[in-house]
Amino acid sequence: MTPQPGTAAPGTFAPLAAPEKLAMPPVVLGTMTFADGADEATSRELLHLALDAGVTWLDTANQYADGRGEPLVGRLLAQLPAARREQLVVATKVGQPDPELGSESQLRPEIVRRSVERSLERLGTEQLDLLYLHKPDRSTPIVETMGELAALHREGKVARIGLSNFTAWQIAQAIESAAAAGAPRPVIAQQMYSAIVRRLDEEYAELAAEAAIATVVYNPLAGGLLTGRYRFGDAAAEGRFGSFGNAAMYRDRYWDERMFAAVERIAAIAEEAGLPVAEAALRWTLSRPVVDGVLVGGSKAAQAAAEPRGARGGAAARGRRAGDRRRGRRAARADARVRPLRGAARLPAAPAIPPSPVGSRGS
Most exposed of 10, 161, 214, 346 (fewest Cβ within 10 Å)? Predict the structure, then answer.
C-alpha cells in the first residue's frame, strides 16, 4: 500500500517522512557567556544590541555557567516589554551534567521532566518554544526519552524538539523513535561547524537535506580562534580560552598548532577580500549549504555588535546562491563577481584534529 502524504514509509526519511523544513533566521543569539564572562549588566547590553540588530531567536541551556545562565536569561526576558518578548523564540537544552540534576544518564525520562519544569520556571514561561537534547545519552534508550517528550508536548510544556551534538545515524534513530513514541518529530539540529571544523560535510549534511532538518551551528568562530587575536605560543589570559569557566574544554578542542596554521591561511584570504577574518569566517560559514543559521554571541558589547553584521553578509550570499538556481547560469556568473568572500573556494581543508570533546562535551 502506498503511504499517504505526510506519513512515513518504514525505514525512510524523505520525501514522505520529511515535513516542510523549519524556517529560521540566519542569526541566533547564543547566551553561553551570560553569567560566565559577561555579568548581568553586560549580558543585558548584549541582549539589547542583538535585539536592536533584528535577532529574534535566543539560545540557552539548563547548565550554562554551572546553572546560572538560564535564570539570568529569564530575568532579562522578564524586563522586556511584553510585545517584544512575544516576538522571541527561546530555545533551551537538557542532557549535559547539571549541578542540581547530577551527571549520570541525563536523558532519563525523570531527569528530562525535572529539567523542563525547572526551565519553564527559570525562563518565566508556560511553554518552551524549542527544547534540544544537548547530547546523546548512551545509557538511556532514546525511545524512552522520546516517550517523556511526547507527554510533555501533550501537556503543552514543549512545542518543538531539536537535537545537538548527535551524529547522522543518531538523528535517524531519534526520528524513528519519536514516531514510535508519539513525540514531535525533531526539526532542528545544533552542531559544531566552522571554516576549520567541517565534520558536518561528511555525512550529516546529506541526512539533514533528506530529512528536512534545519541546522544551526555553534562555534562559527572556533571559540574566538577565527578572530585572529590569539597566538599559539602565547597563553590566553582572558576570553573563551583563558578566563571562562570552560576554558580548559575549549583549549582541548581548538588549541592545536594545525588549527592556528589554518587560521593564518584563512586570514590571508580575508585580507585579500578586504574583510576582517572574523567577518570572512562568518560569511563563509553561513554561505554553506548545510548551514541555516549561526549562533553568535560574546562577552563584550563590541563582539555582539560585530558578529550579526558578518553573519548578515553570509545570509545575503546564501540568498544570492538560491537566486542563482532560479535565474540560471548566466546570472550566476554575474553574481560570482560580487560574492562576499573572494577566494572562499580556496579556504584550506580542515586539519586533522586531535581527540576532542565533540559529542560528549559540546556547547
Answer: 10
Nearest residue to 79 via CA among 47, 114, 108: 47
* Residue 219 Cα distances to 122, 191, 318, angstroms: 25, 9, 19
**Percentage of the residues of the chain whose pLDDT score is greater than 90:** 56
How many Å separate Cα 116 from the centre of its chain? Answer: 19
Identify the CA nearest to 173 among candidates 206, 211, 134: 211
Question: What's the gap between Cα 300 and its chain centre?
Answer: 20
Tell me, what's the pLDDT at 258?
86
Residue whose C-alpha is closest to residue 157's, from 213, 99, 114 = 114
Of residues 246 and 93, the one with the higher pLDDT is: 93
E-strand ranges in the chain read 27-30, 57-59, 89-94, 128-133, 158-164, 188-192, 214-218, 293-296
Least confident interval from 115-129, 134-148, 234-248, 332-346: 332-346
- Residue 5 CB coordination number (10 Å): 7
CA dihedral 242, 243, 248, 249 (to 10 degrees): -100
Catalytic residues: 64
| Cα separation, 341 vs 345, whole angstroms | 9
Calpha distance 295→278 (Å, rounded): 14
Q: In Å, what is the CA distance from 155 to each residue of 62, 127, 128, 149, 316?
A: 20, 9, 11, 10, 39
String of DSSP letters for 236-285? --SSTTTTSTTHHHHHHHH--HHHHHHHHHHHHHHHHHT--HHHHHHHHH
Q: What is the pTM of this model?
A: 0.80
Closest CA to 26 of 214, 274, 230, 280: 214
Query: CA 199, CA 117: separation in Å to the nearest integer?
Result: 34
Q: Is 34 buried (19+), middle (13-18) or exposed (0-12) by CB count in 10 A?
A: buried
Alpha carbons 236 and 260: distance in angstroms, whole number: 14
C-beta atoms surrounding 166 within 10 Å: 26
